[in-house]
Amino acid sequence: MDNNTKRTVVVTGFGPFGEHTINASWVAVQELKKLGLGHDVDLYVYEVPVEYQTVQSLVPSLWNQYHPQLVVHVGLSGMATTVTLEKCGHNYGYKGLDNCSFCPDSQCCIEGGPDCIDSVIDMDSVCKRVSASGLGVAVSVSKDAGRYLCDYTYYTSLYLSQGRSAFVHVPPLGKPYSGEDLGRALQAIVQAMLDLLAQSEDKIHCQHGH
């Protein structure tokens, strides 16, 4: 890849839902926006409402508008105590009602799509890198994004991007991390993901004999 080429990254967080009147995921994404990802990355951030039908239209529009190198969706898990990297998205099992009291009739994301789609990014490698960086924020890996709007958004994005998406769950604010802590963790995570993507692209170029 030409080093002068700016890479485009889109990061989304979710709006309020249920008792979570302040959604830690959007706070964390705003903190990441302040920190940035370096001068060679154009970072765009979006707040996503907790609504299936909005996700259905918004996620494709982000890919079409920006043609990003990577899209990272960030969501809140009330049960999480670590920053959690999700390996895959699931197509079926969406029974929970969204903020509009709606859920898909089919209870799935993409009719006829595979049951599960893995990210092309090796989340175990990202986790090791970030954990070794001495950030002071615990990071873990998961294979179950929860069958609600988080999982739904992730699957939709993975399907559209042939796996060039990631999902990060964050705990509620103050349990135990501040918004600033979460923003720093996201910065380290996204930079590690971009490094891994660049490495895999370099390998592909080498195999093609350039």
TrEMBL record:
Role summary: Removes 5-oxoproline from various penultimate amino acid residues except L-proline.
Listed Pfam families: Peptidase_C15
Main location: cytoplasm
Manganese in keyword set: no
GO BP annotation list: proteolysis
Family note: Belongs to the peptidase C15 family.
Keyword Cytoplasm among UniProt keywords: yes
Name of this chain's protein: Pyroglutamyl-peptidase I
Catalytic activity: Release of an N-terminal pyroglutamyl group from a polypeptide, the second amino acid generally not being Pro
Alphabetized InterPro entries for the sequence: Peptidase_C15, Peptidase_C15-like, Peptidase_C15-like_sf, PGPEP1_Cys_AS, PGPEP1_Glu_AS
Locations listed in the record: Cytoplasm
EC number, as in UniProt: 3.4.19.3
Subunit structure, interactors included: Monomer.
Domain of life per record: Eukaryota
One of the record's GO cellular component terms: cytosol
GO molecular function: pyroglutamyl-peptidase activity
Keywords: Cytoplasm, Hydrolase, Protease, Thiol protease
Species of origin: Scleropages formosus (Asian bonytongue)
Catalytic residues identified in the record: E86, C150
Class of the enzyme per the UniProt entry, highest EC level: hydrolase
